Structure formats: structure tokens, C-alpha cells
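Example protein as discussed:

>
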Amino acid sequence: MEREITIREAGTERDVAAFWEQLHIYFKRDIFPDPEDGNRAYFLSDTEYRAHIQKLHDREQDRCRYLFFHRADQDIGFAMPVIYHTEDRKCFILEFCVFPQFRGNGTGRQCAGLLLQWAFENGAAYAELNYGSDERRLRFWQSLGFVRNGMDEWGEPLMLLPPKEAVPIKIELLSDPQDWQLLKLENGFLYEIGEEPFSGEKQELLQQAIREKRITFFVARRGYRAVGMCSVSKCFSTFSCGDTGVFDDFYIEPVFRKKGVARLLAQAAQTWCRENGISSLSVCCAPCDEGMYQALGFQTRLGTTFIHLS
């Protein structure tokens, strides 16, 4: 039992101080080794990052936990997870570290496996995390079953341990232009087509267009979690002397593809157009996607589209 790893939560002021000391060392050594990195100061700040995390730690629901991995009477690493019980029981792993002197011989995998076991025993349904641009971290979490799954609302890449529980997918009209999950899906969509994440200015322009009903979003939800989206933008057509629609922003998180979500989104958009007097719904796509869109009901070819980029 001497080699057994256990988890203990930082429960005293001394433990919490030790946790933050190790977290700062980890940030400087492993995450922001360049002193000139613009993010370094924020994550090492007690008045900004630490104050924000401490609020999450101290709240009554969906608390952030300060956990140590413990073996042979000493701490060998730490983790900082949050289980969102009030949403869909996602465990988001904010930080995970095995101290350098204890790395190797599968210790990291043991600690990560123990953390996931702890999460499920405490009510989590699945797990998610950011991996940055570190290929070693990517391969490590892939070895534990995580898969790459889009971007977060800040444009950072995400990994997801796919949930095992089957939850029905429902399609909703987006009601809140500032919904953070819309921004997460948009960044995933932009990343997939090779574009940069939304800037603050573009976020405001999109929100204004939604408020003015120039664009309507349909969101696929798996319980609380938004896993896909599409949009319809209205245009006036002199041919029909009425509104037509353009189908766009069609994106489903990779983990939730091939589960019928695409068809549900396309059908919701097509039904909404019929019910709102929109005479046609068109989509512009690459040749490789033509078969998919035809299978989703876009079956009338209108020729070739040319555009001028200003």
C-alpha cells in the first residue's frame, strides 16, 4: 500500500497556501516559461486570477476544488476540477500537475485515472479540459480516452471524455444573443474552416445582428450543453418579392457527430422558414459537402455562385 496514490482536498489555510504555491510554480515552469508571455502576469496575480478562482472555490454550488495527489506521506501533484451539478454534471479540469520529481513510470496516468474516478464518484457525467498547444498534453489525455472537441468561448482548444449516458438532443431557437455557448460553437466552427476566433468587436456585431433579427440561430442541446448550431439570415428577393434565407454557421461538436444532430438542425431551420414566410433556403458549400446537404433536403441546384470580397 506504500505506493498507493490517494486524493486529499486542501482543507486548511496551510493546505490552501501550499496549493497556490505549487500552482504558481507550475505556471512559471510548465505553462508560461517565457517571462515575457503576456498571460503570465494574469495567472500569477493574486488580485485577478487567484481572486476569481477563490470565488469559485467558496461558492455553495458547483465549487472549484483544490486537490492533492498523495503517496507515501507526501504530496506528488495536484488538480483543480469543477463539477457543474447545476448544468449537465460536466467535470471541467482547470489544472492538472504531477510534480517533476515524481513523473514517469505511469504516475501521471494513475493520478489522472484517480481524478476521473473521484469526479464520477462525486456526480460527474463526463469530463472536459483545455490542452493549449502542447502536443505532449494532447497525447497524454488522448491515451485516457479524451478526444479533441472544438474550442471554448476564448478560442482555446478543448478535449472531451465522451459521456456514456444517452441524453436526447433538442433543437431550440437561440433566445440570448450573449449566450456563452454560442460563442464556443462559433469559435469551433471558425477553427474548423481555418479562421481566427471571434474578436470582441465581432462578438458585438453578431449580437447586434441577432437582436435585430437579421440572423436567427438554432441550437442543438444535449440537456444543458449546446453541441451544435446553424443559422438563417434573411434577404429580400426581387424574384419572389419576399424574404429568402441563407443557411450558415452549420457546426456540430466532433464528439456529437453521426448521431442525427445535423438532420435535426436542418429540419428545424427548414420548418422555421416555412412557418415564417421565407420562400426558399439556400446554402453555399464546397463540392465535398454537396452530398451531405442534398441528403439534408437541399436538393435544387441553382448554378454557380460568384462573390466579390470587398
